[in-house]
Automatic annotation (TrEMBL):
Residues 3-190 form the Calcineurin-like phosphoesterase domain. Keywords: Hydrolase, Iron, Metal-binding. InterPro entries: Calcineurin-like_PHP (IPR004843), CNP_phosphodiesterase-III (IPR050884), Metallo-depent_PP-like (IPR029052). The lineage of its organism: Bacteria, Pseudomonadati, Pseudomonadota, Gammaproteobacteria, Pseudomonadales. This is Calcineurin-like phosphoesterase domain-containing protein. It comes from the Bacteria. One of its GO terms (molecular function) is metal ion binding. Belongs to the cyclic nucleotide phosphodiesterase class-III family. It comes from Pseudomonas abyssi.
Length: 268
């Protein structure tokens, strides 16, 4: 069994101590073997915010892969945003903005969908799209194939359509045809799981959005939330699910909100 913690948009600088404590408790109880952090680690990309974020992630005590979000670049310092937009992120997390993790049962491809020349919208280059597509085609049938980026590719609210990855309607079917199982993202502080369709193969994949893990910047009545992804194989058969855990003020803990079983297509 592989168990992965997917968290997003903690926005350090607006983090809440009670929620942080509850998340550490959830990790201790559920014992995920890996954490995936899909951007907006800080509120204003300040060095102290990144340091606090790094310290907290280290306290979780599990390996972590991260990609930056639009909030992880300086907003009010145009020179730093132009010359070294991810400087503080790289000083505290990783020099590689697009990390890759591969094991016998897992492939995680990190994609940096943020852009220094855009305030919040996400976009990918042709080179990024092709790199991910080629890497997915090389994956083993035994592997759970994940792509993680900051910006969403499916909207459930009409108001979020403007937040979708620019050009995503052309990108996603290519990745699904290449073998994508699950695309992880954040940005809009609204958790959900939705199917994604290929274009030529007839394959289906999935996307899982995470809410804001720790920030006071919750969306409406949606509380802080994280996802726990579980995956196992029995010969050619795969079992995969995404469980959404929401923070409850009454108990000061994360509680299971929903559980979604995912059918994984091995036609590619």
């Amino acid at each position: 069994m592989t168990r992965i913690l997917h968290l997003s948009d903690p926005h350090f600088g607006t983090e809440q101590q009670a929620v942080m404590t509850a998340l550490m408790q959830l990790v201790e109880e559920q014992r995920p073997t890996l954490a995936l952090l899909s951007g907006d680690i800080t509120q204003r990309a300040r060095p102290d915010q990144f340091r606090r974020a790094r310290l907290f992630m280290e306290q979780l005590g599990i390996p972590m892969l991260a990609v930056p979000g639009n909030h992880d670049m300086p907003l009010f310092n145009p020179f730093k945003r132009l010359l070294r937009p991810y400087g503080h992120y790289q000083d505290n997390f990783a020099a590689d903005l697009e990390p890759l993790l591969e094991t016998e049962r897992l492939l995680v491809i990190g994609v940096n969908s943020s852009r220094a020349d855009r305030h919040k919208n996400g976009e990918l280059t042709a080179e990024q799209i092709e790199r991910v597509e080629n890497r997915l085609r090389q994956a083993s049938a035994r592997q759970l194939r994940l792509v993680m980026q900051h910006h969403p590719v499916r909207a459930v609210e009409s108001s979020d359509r403007s937040n979708l990855l620019i050009g995503g309607e052309a990108v996603v079917p290519r990745w699904v045809d290449a073998g994508l199982d699950l695309l992880l993202a954040g940005h809009i502080h609204l958790p959900y799981v939705r199917p994604l369709n290929g274009q030529t193969s007839g394959r289906q994949a999935w996307t899982a959005q995470a809410g804001t893990a720790l920030s006071s910047r919750v969306r409406g009545d949606i509380p802080n939330s994280v996802n726990l992804i579980e995956h196992s194989t029995d010969g050619p058969f795969h079992a995969c699910s995404v469980a959404r855990w929401d923070y409850a003020d009454t108990s000061r803990s994360f509680r299971l909100y929903s559980h979604t079983d995912l059918a994984l297509d091995r036609s590619a």
